[in-house]
């Protein structure tokens, strides 16, 4: 069985991500729009980071498949697949806000077994290997991550990218959740999930995610003690509507508001 990537491997992915992304950050580079109706930005940094990640992964794990946001699927052994989002939070990136991140997750038989979120500007690495979830900043020693112990919505901090992403009944249900918590914050993309794993937030709710938006974060949350599923309580690797919570009790209460059935 393929060895699960360790902290040192994720540090290498982080290093090449920083080299590929930071020259473009706050550099007023060109922004392309993937859509003819709407706005889905992509920059040279997105492509440069994904290329760098693919090169390192293919060197170390030549038999693994790779699914990335910017380039074609690389077929693999049918068991192991890396899922990459080179710049999660491109809107934040082009706005100069350091809450974007580089996501890389490894699935085995379609289930997350390891992953990372790396923020190059602050040099913060949040990663999960077979031994647990970890935080590393610069050259410091890895610190274990642990979610908070909140069980009550009234004590919880809630993150989402934007309430405007919720539509119809989902918007009404999110509003009820928002009214039930102590504090809510917007606009952090993948950084919100990392803050949950690190014990700084309690709930993250997002609608309409792609696999590359969440796969790098699943093990990070679960191995820190949290729970992450879709809104039906199923596995989140395929994306869709996703909810993460610091505890199982808080997760159940959040799901009860988001999906009353």
3D architecture notes:
The protein is an alpha+beta fold. It has helices spanning 7-21, 44-60, 90-94, 169-180, 190-197, 211-222, 248-258; strands spanning 31-33, 41-43, 65-68, 80-88, 101-108, 111-119, 124-129, 132-137, 143-144, 157-160, 183-186, 203-209, 227-230, 240-245. The strands form 3 sheets. The protein has a 7-stranded mixed sheet with strand order 3-4-5-6-7-8-9, with helices on both faces. A 5-stranded mixed sheet has the order 11-10-12-14-13, sandwiched between helices. A hairpin with a 2-residue loop joins strand 7 (124-129) and strand 8. Helix 1 (7-21) packs antiparallel against helix 2 (44-60). It is globular, with a radius of gyration of 17 Å. The mean pLDDT is 94.
Task: List the SSEs and their pairings.
Elements: H1 7-21, E1 31-33, E2 41-43, H2 44-60, E3 65-68, E4 80-88, H3 90-94, E5 101-108, E6 111-119, E7 124-129, E8 132-137, E9 143-144, E10 157-160, H4 169-180, E11 183-186, H5 190-197, E12 203-209, H6 211-222, E13 227-230, E14 240-245, H7 248-258
